[in-house]
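Data availability (excerpt). The following record was deposited with the supplementary files.
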Amino acid sequence: MSFFAALSVSGCLTSPAEYKELLAAAKDHDGDGFVNVDYDGDDCDDDRADVNPGAEEVCDGADNNCDGETDEGFDTSWYEDHDEDGYAAAAPITACEAPSAEATQTPGADCDDLDASVSPDAVEVCDGQDNNCDGRLDEQEAIDASLWHRDEDGDGFGQDAAPLRACEALDGTVAQAGDCDDGDATVNPGAAEVCDDGLDNNCDESASPCAFSGDYDLNDADVIFTGESGDEAGWAMCGGDLNHDGADDLAIGAPGADRVYVVYGPLTQGEHKLSDADLTLSGSSGSELGYALLCTDLNDDGGADLAVGAPGDSEVTLWFGPLGTGKKSSTAAGNTFSSSQDRYGASLAGGLDDGEDEDGDADLFVGAADEYNPGESGILNIIWGPLESASTSLSVWFDGSFQTR
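Predicted structure:
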């Protein structure tokens, strides 16, 4: 009871002695020798004689010695494994005594002690939680993290190289890879293939649907060239810009008629007679001119030229572009190679510096198909460039011998 309450109960003023006694009782209600803080004393709990500045601090949840701290000097942090996953909680429980028999005062590492699937031993998965308690959420090491691919052209398809692992898409990445040109948004696996643009638009490493496959009726062709009966038109063909006007042209061999027909592009749809070709090359009767054809750069001027095989005469003629128009004899060729080998000129290849001379000039390969000597099945001839003036060739028999002629 306070001092003023005591006066109220008495109903009258007391004597000076009684006043002093009542005042002393009010200032130290619990009689522990320390004045209540309400009277400018330092007893922080004047209802408990065991709480005062002279008391010894004990672990009971109270500030026994009135120093403003509770249970100082005592370790009151306890760690329990509530979810029984083998790891105590990282957050402590404050208590003077162990809250359970399993409680320990060693700090735990379980960042969610109410979920047994979360602990330092857990496998990280993409679920928005820190499953393995490493302080990170859904890191790239998550077992179910996805692969994301850089998409620099923004077409929805990314690069195959160097994918990134993450639970969610990173900036500038997509889930779908397979973009074979990530600098061109028109090129990706979802694009439609465009014929004759020099690009693999749909990244399938194929010319389909530009390439033909299956069965077709030749009468349904966009362009049809017709020759004469027995001329074997179409026995050999090659294409290139033979007149150097920027459009591809078509050379058609007709060895049955000893001719080569050249039609300059761009070709027009419909049926056309080869007798109306822009250029006709004619050989001697039985020469089989046009049995083999090669359209490529033979003189290193950057434009296409034409090589024509005439195995009936064992001869090869070279026509250097730009080719003209009209009708020409094989004797008007830019250069002619002949041989005593049977059917020399039955096959042609080359146009690059493929010979062993490696002088930078285009070389020409000429096949002689029939047996040259008993037991031999053919001969390969290499004519070293420059082909405009070449006269020397290397003959290779298939028994491994060489001969320069």
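Summary of structural features: Helices lie at 3-10, 16-27.
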